[in-house]
TrEMBL record:
Gene3D superfamilies: FAD/NAD(P)-binding domain. It comes from the Bacteria. Keywords: FAD, Flavoprotein, Oxidoreductase. PANTHER family: FAD_NAD(P)-BINDING DOMAIN-CONTAINING PROTEIN-RELATED (PTHR42877:SF4), L-ORNITHINE N(5)-MONOOXYGENASE-RELATED (PTHR42877). This is Cation diffusion facilitator CzcD-associated flavoprotein CzcO. Belongs to the FAD-binding monooxygenase family. GO terms for molecular function: flavin adenine dinucleotide binding; N,N-dimethylaniline monooxygenase activity; NADP binding.
Amino acid sequence: MTRVVIIGAGFGGIAAAAAIVRDDDIDLVVLEKADRVGGVWRDNTYPGCACDIPAPLYSYSFAMNPNWTRRFPPHREIQAYIEDCAARLGITERIRFGTEVTDATWTGAHWVITMNGGETLEADVLIPAVGQLSRPAIPSLPGAETFQGTAVHTAHWTPDVPISGKRIAVIGTGASAIQLVPAIAGDAAHVSVFQRTPPWTLPKPDRRYGRARLSAYRKWPSLMRASRAGTWLLTLVTGAAVTGNRVADALVRGISHLQRRVQVRDPELRAKVTPDEPMGCKRVLFTNAWLPALARPDVDLITEKIVAVTENGIRTADGADHPCDVLVYGTGFAATEFLVPIRVTGRDGVLLSEVWREGAHAYLGITVPGFPNLFLVYGPNTNTGNTSVIYFHETQARYIAQAVRRVALGDRPFEVRTERATDYDQEMQTRLAGSVWTGCQSWYRTATGRVVTNWPGKAQEYRRRAARLDPADFR
Ligand code: NAP
């Protein structure tokens, strides 16, 4: 039996497990630090949290769902979907919940995985699938520890965060904040939104799925495939806009401009929400409710720099104090710190954190020289800003399943050739040097300026390149 350990039971880990779980020669264990599957969809429960990619595409191609209630479903539906997939595919019973991995070491023959409490487990193949957006980033603002109210990051939301009748301050105007603010405005006494950079927004083509549509989906599953294909075509337009197609860029800019004209009457507010960064520098956000929420009399958009957090609220560079009862950090994630805090030691005692000191890199975002039988899901340079990341996860899962089969057939240890990985990384960095992400500040880059999260091309190019594992790439 080939022993395989997957770390993480989010969309990536479940995709990898689904690709190998039915293989009788494989002894599969999934280690999950929380007590439920779901990854980011388990963790992010803030009001308004929903998918910003249409569900027909933001789901597994091998587990199409006829039960979505709308095109952009709320987080609880996505959580229910992934729990259902894990159960139906026979993965849930392979998961050890409440198990956090602290250490993984290659002995020369296999991986020794150390868990919280010091227990160890051996594996022939190790598949970390811990996500890119799993570790919240909270800026170190002077005085933050003195704040007397409730402070919470969007990814750490709990049902007892007080909103009704409270003064709420939200730092950040990214994908999370633009969903949260419209959901709490009106219920809260007042919302102060602190914006550093205005995001590009587009109307969200959301709609409720009626009974007739859902029963048609159940009767003729091929209709779901058609809907998925249609959604895919739409994402090609936004994808083209952020990868340099001038016509698509002009079209998407025009729609965004029109949205601001229609939804924001006040020219001063409109000027504040008009993006000054290139389109695609950060994720383009689909929303119908964000701009109208900012235009409400009980919501303020503050663009002055935050200089401190006080006992009672936030102080900005103009000397103004903005009192609040609840301080929400919608400040995103430490996306460039791959696998932190797991200590991974490969061949010859080399630390993966050392190899990645200048920024993470991996061949196809999956495999690293010096780290035999280690395959990553959602690794370096495999994020996408305009289509479904699950498409990438499935591609990686199929590739990894091929690698696992080779290990099972006796190809062990199975390690990518250094020259292949180096050439690939050079190609990535050359292409990314000409991309929109290099020219602006975003969570896609490390402090040294290396873009380590995003894939530089079209999603279908990634699928084509990672479709078939080439044994010549490995030693
Ligand atoms: P984010 O996109 O990284 O946004 C963080 C926000 O916080 C930005 O507006 C940033 O400003 C601001 N910020 C950070 N540090 C700050 C500071 N010190 N002072 C003031 N402002 C500060 O994070 P996110 O909104 O949580 O979204 C992260 C990713 O999660 C998204 O890109 C998306 O991939 C994913 N997500 C997906 C969904 C979905 O529906 N599928 C929903 C939510 C999130 P700057 O722009 O100036 O850096």
